[in-house]
Each structure stands twice: as C-alpha cells, then as structure tokens.
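Q: My collaborator sent me two sequences in one message, no labels, and asked for predicted structures for both. Can we handle them in order? The first one she listed is below.
A: Yes, handling them in the order given. First sequence, followed by its structure tokens:
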Amino acid sequence: MSLVQTHTPTIQAPQLAPSSRRGFRSIVAGGLTGGINICIVFPTEFIKTQLQLDTGKNIMTAHHSIMAPYKATILESKNVKAYTGSVDVVKKTIRQKGVTGMYKGVTVLLCGAIPTYSVRFGVFDFLKSKFSDQDGNLSPLARLGCGLGTGVTEATLVMTWVETLKVRLISDQRKKNPQYRGLVHAASSIIRNEGLSGLYKGLTPTILKQGSNQAIRFSAMETLRKWYTGADQSKSVPKPFVALFGALAGGCSVLGNTPIDVVKTRMQNGSYSSTMECARQVAMKEGVRGFYKGCLPRMNRVCLEVALAFCIYDSVMDIFKTVWPSK
C-alpha cells in the first residue's frame, strides 16, 4: 500500500459570460410592456390632459338693478371652466363623441409607447449592469443616477415628440372645427407650419419631467425590491408585491413632479414661447394650485400604469428565461 497520496487536479468548466442578448431581451420586453399598458390606462391620461388644458373662458355677464330691471347696469367678467372634474370630463366626452372619444390620440401614444418602454427598460438594464456591484445590487446614488439617465434618454429620443402630438390632438378635439385628421396629418402640419422644432416644444420640461420620473420610480422600485429580497438576487418578488411597489413608486414620482408636467403640457399646446414664461404665467394667473392641476387623475393613472408596467415586464422576462435564456 503506497503511503504517497496522489491528488487528481479538479478541472473547472469555463464560466460563460452573459449573452449580449440580455440587453435585447430587455428592449423587446419593454416594447411589449408599453403596448399592453397604454391600451389599459389611456383614458385616465386623456382626462388628465383635458383638465390641465382647461384654463377656462372669460364670459361677460350683465347685472340688473332693482330700480331698472330691464336695463343692465354692470358688466362682470367671469372665468368659466369647461369641466368641473374628472367625472365631468368622462360624461361630456362620451355624450358628445362616444366612448371612442376617450381614446382620441391613443394612436400616437401606442406608436410612442413601444419605443419609449423599449428605451426605458433597455437603458436602465444596461446602466444597471455597468454600475451594480458584484452581487448585482445598486447603491442608492447609483439607483438615482441610472433612473435619471434612463429618463433623459427616453425624453430626448422619443417622449418629447410623442407628447407634443398627443397634446395637440387632444387639444384639437376641443375645437368646433378640428384641423387635424389624424396622427400623420398632425405631424406633417406641425412640421410644415412650425418646422421640426415644433415637435420638440417643451423639450426642457420633458427632460426634467422624465429624468425626475425615472430617477424616483426606479430608485423607489429597486429599494423596495432590495428590502423584500434582502439583497438576494436569486430571490424573486411575488407579482402582487411588484404591483404594490410599482404603485408606490409611481405615486412618489407624481407628487415630486406634477408642476413640471403641467408646464410641459401647456408648452406643448403651443401657447407659450418659453418654459420660464409658461411657469410665470401659471403662477400669476392660477397660483400654486395651478401647478397641481390634474394631479388626482394623474396619480390614478401613474400608479396604475407603473404597477402594471413592472408586473407585465417581470412576467415577460420570466417567460424569456425559459424560451430565450440569457446564457
């Protein structure tokens, strides 16, 4: 019996680097998420935009004296709003234009939602892969930075012109004689009359809005995921909790940047020459409350949209893990 022990060297299989298809999977999953999401939540976006554009009309009313009941003695100007609230928007729109009226402008959002969500989840996934630690976790500052970079990118590439067309189409519907026949006609008319820059009105507030939106949303979402899983990347979050976390993240973003959203919407309606002038006019005419017009319907829409978005995205990515593995 030999006293010398022989050790057989252990041969480890080479580690396979993650496939570059992971980034493309995020882009595809994001596009699918956007298309499904918009079809569900668009009516609330329509209500929010109508309320934000409802600055009212000045109507002159005559007041009569008791001594001269058939002769007007005073003319008084009164600002009358077209809508009294969210429910009133729904009632009047359906009564005047039917249920399809609630989906006026949805085409442009569908066309914009797919590339927007593709960019959103694709860019965030890319940035997360670059700035996460060896365990796949992001620091609080990195979460904000990745979200901010995601928002700025989607605002510059997609969101500004999509939002401009959406606001113009919805605003045009309020007129007695609408001038736009559809998405393509609206885009061509704006470019012809105002140049390509007409589609990028409100670029600055849109970048501010989307940058802050995604910084808050992704930061909140990643923080809540990390809290639930204990920073264990192998542990998944149940879909009901994903929806709850998404709703909370969306609500935080609404409270944080509704004033920017109001300024952006007014700018894209074509009524102001600059972002600062728009903000000054809103402050002078409507006060602080003017910056939070449409906050409630926007809160309803965003909480629902973000909750659905993360649920749909996670579900699609779960399917991709089986039919389209990343390694």
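Q: And the one she listed second?
A: Here it is, processed independently of the first:
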Amino acid sequence: MLLSLLTFGMKNPTNFYNYHRKRRKVEERWTSGNFSQTVLDGHTEGVYAIKLMKDPSSKSFKLVSGSGDGTVRWWNVNFKRSEIEFDEKPDEREDYTVTSKILNRKSVVNCIDCNRINDEDIVACGSISGSINVMRISDDGELMGAYETFNAGGEFVKIIFSPLDPLSLFTACKFDPKIKLWDVENCKKISEISTNAIIKCMAPSFGTFGECLVVGNMKGLSIADYRMNRMALNFDGGVVWNLCTSFDEKCQTKGGATHDDSQIFYVEKGQMKRLDLRYPNPSEFGPALESSLSEKVTTMNYQSCLNRLVTITYIGNITYYDTCKEGDSKISSLRYTNLVFTSQFFGAKLLFGSYDSSIQLWDFGIK
C-alpha cells in the first residue's frame, strides 16, 4: 500500500528507482577511477573533432572523427544504447567491436557535424583552411557521394546543421563576429547574423525551452534566434572560451528521470557559469577555475538526463559535476596523460579525442 502511494502518478516507478541506483553506482566508479578503457587507433595525428551518429536500424551509435592528419574516419563502435548500463557482476566488461574506414582526405579537420536524410548519413567537415566538405555515407560506412566543396571564409570555430533544413549549415569562423547559414547543395550563403564581438565558441540549443544558437564571444554570452535571423539576448561580461548545451539525443534513461534541457554551461574569465533558458539570468557554477593556459577548459559536455556535467582541460584534467548541487558540485576528478581537444559524454560513457592521435572510450557502466 505504501509503495503504491509513493509511486502514484509516476509513469514508470521501477525505472525511476533503477535510474538513481545505477547513477549512484556510476558515480562510485568515477570517484574510484574504475572504468573500462577502449582505445580507437587509426589516426596518425591529433583528433580535433568527434561526432556520434545514431544508427536507426540497431539503436546503437556510429562515430565520425576528424584529425590533424587530414582524414575523416567512420567508426563502427558496436556498443548498445547509451542509457546507463549496470549489472551486479563487477568483473564483466562490455566488449566493443571496432572497425574504421577513411571517408576522405583533406587539410586539418577541426569541426564535424552530422545529419540524416532518408537512408543516408550526411557528414559535414570543416577544415582550418576554411573549406567545407559534405559527404553522403551509407549505414555501413561507404562513401556514397559528396557535395561540392566550398569555402566559408576562415578557420572554423563550429559548424552545425540547421534543424529547419537538413542541407543547411550554420558556420562560425575564427576572428569573425558573424554566424553564417549555407545552402550545402548549391554552395551559397543564405543569410548571416551579426553578433556583437568575435566568436569563440557556439552550440545549438534545440530543446524544450527554445530553438536557438548559443554563442560565446569576446564580450560575453549571446543567444541567436535563427528563425528570426537576429540576436535575441546578450549577456555582457568577459571572454567566453567554451560552452555546452544538452547532449542532442533523446532521454537516455528509458523514462522515469527528469530531463532538464534548459541549461547552458559556459566558462567566462576563469569562472564556470550557468544560464537557464527559462529564467535568463546567468549565475556562477562550481569553484573558480585555474587561470593558466594549461588549465583552460577545452571541451565540456552536459548530460541533461543525468544532471551531470563533464569538463576537460587542455592538459587532460577531467572533472565530473552534479548540476543539481549548489556550491561544491564537483563529484570527482580524473586525469588523462595527453592533451584533449574534443569530447562527448553520454550515459555512463565518455568519448574524447587526444593529441596522441587516439580516441578514448571510457565506460563507467558495467554490462
């Protein structure tokens, strides 16, 4: 009777309970440094960009990576769904079958985004030379064709496919205060949005509380309304070096968990900050960061299903945060032995690309 009262109104009370139990176990592994490590070798220079693609046929994920060696690689990393996976047998680890193919060779690739049209994956790659190459990839990683390569004006900060048109691409370039929207099929610029300063980072926010582009620049944080083709909000402050929004997949926990995709986290003048799109008023989050260049946060990821944030510094310091906590929100810190440029955090797994040419897959869940 008591259990019935406590679970009344819950869509899936069993999953809700299991979600918290599993998350607690995952955090114990973060704290103790207990994880399985898979190394994806294939690139010969630093890995600057990675992007997960969901496989609609198997509910697993595929991976695309870009490197300083000028190659774009497609990886079939045969792990299952990205919800937290946990079993009571701590010695059992999930085995990953890894294969990779070279999709293309070009100059240093530092930005990647993916989309899907019909039965093909569309992969856009931005290089430090300012060129964009967009390829059509089959489900088994075969190159089906490519659109004409075009130049977007300079070294990229970020490229993002527009949700309004699967063949339109937003770009932000180094030393440029403008966000540009490109027609990939016809290699022409559709429109542009002028921000108030040179752009340092950009991320999409396509969640429940709004569809916009979040921009960090030399003067602070800005919100761009791409539907109205204008800047919507500006929060003046210091230089924003990095930011993240919610991981762009549906809830990873099979229901039962609160899914808060309204949060934006960013680094401004050595301090992490949080902006809630429901109440646009930035606030400080977590402790002050080290000011040295070596401790600069180069990549950060927010998992809204778990209410967890991961930041990685230039020299490989990895920090795991509880975003529900005020004050001391840090759960644990780990260290990688080389420089880290890009990452993606989902469920109990952390993927990141390093200067040592490897892609690291750290799994804190146990199959």
